[in-house]
Amino acid sequence: YRFDHHQVQEVLYDELLPDLREAYHASLAESLVRRYAAEGHPERLEGRAVAEVCRHLLEGGRGEEAKRFIDDALDFLGAVYLHDEAVALADSALSTPGMLADDERARVLLRAAETLHLLGRHEDESRLLDEAVRLSLDVGDRSLRVQALVGRGRWLQRAASYGEATRVLDEARALARAVGDAAGERTVERVLGAVAYAQGDFDAAREHYGRQRELARAQGDPLEEAHATGNLGTALDRLGKHEDALACFQHHLEVAEAEGDLVGQSVANGNLGVCLSDLGRYDDATTCFERQLDLARRTGNREGEARATGYLAFVDVMHGRTELALERFRREAG
């Protein structure tokens, strides 16, 4: 049934007795599973279907059944940049009694925290990371603990707690090396590079990003190698090696475009714009920042959107367009 207005649907939904509402959701989940099975997909639901089935099972009080769909549902929602919906689904799963425990709970906590980071909801991100760090220690899974510590280190870096961030990340790197977790070690080097960069130690940042790139190359992952190359470019740019930095950013952008990585394209355009600004090429920089802003909006990256807005405002100020810069910030705040 299609309602004439969403508020009519919302009022009727709110008026349902809780038990009846739960029964309707469970029934809808069963119907969706039967329908997709009849269409030849009995083993594994995909796309929007898996997200809808998971949501209805959770709302229908069928947490144990929802558990087998939660990872695929979060994969889908992340792939199509429905970050708010992903956070809501993860929150529903985490708040369902008895559904997730130990390592399964920790992994969903970390996925939700990563999404909250993109949304700029850092207090909520910190709360989930605290629980994930505790759980990772309790279950004794050292690779899981690496992920949790990296998340905490990234949050501390953003909060400018650089000494604590370094301590946490050093622990994560030691664990990653002990268990042979090359992907985890690569991620640690990336965040350590960000810590060094934020403190103005660009030589140290270059070393960390260089190690990140070496690890990605050794793993045969061209996209991750391109991400690391882009990070390396940010340190080179601050060290005055602008042409080398431009080559890094251009390589990152080319690989991201070839791989269809919209987030990577947004980051690469932003980095190109900063470097071009350093060279006084403000018109070219503006083009890059506008692309960054568009891609950040398309991918639901609110932190990236805010960063691009700030860059564009900087160019406006450099051109004497102070009022336009202020208007950008007003629109972003509103």
Describe the protein's architecture and organization.
With 334 residues, the protein is mainly alpha-helical. The chain is built from 17 helices and no strands. The protein has helices at residues 6-15, 18-38, 47-59, 63-79, 83-95, 102-119, 122-139, 142-158, 162-179, 182-198, 202-218, 222-238, 242-259, 262-278, 282-298, 302-318, 322-333. α12 (222-238) runs parallel beside α14. It is globular and about 65 Å long. The two termini are 35 Å apart.
Outline:
The protein is an all-alpha fold and 334 residues long. The chain has helices spanning 6-15, 18-38, 47-59, 63-79, 83-95, 102-119, 122-139, 142-158, 162-179, 182-198, 202-218, 222-238, 242-259, 262-278, 282-298, 302-318, 322-333.
